[in-house]
Amino acid sequence: MHYLAPLDEARSLHSIAAAVPSSGPYASDSLAGDLLVPYLKRMLAENRRRVLVDPDGVAAFRHLLKAISAAGNQEALALAYSFADVFR
């Protein structure tokens, strides 16, 4: 889904967030983190307002970051700490 995201960023963000469970094998899979972290970084770079201001976008972004951070993905943890004030 993240490859199709540029076609409709809002819909893709919500769809990806809905597809990724809060915990479990997918969230802890290193391949999932390798796909999701660059996607989240791209969202921050290209769609900052959607993931930092829009309430639905913030919730979806937060869910994804929390899921892969909780699984111990180091890049996700670093990203979460750099935006800690947004997620309080």
From TrEMBL:
Organism: Micromonospora vulcania
Name under which the protein is recorded: Uncharacterized protein
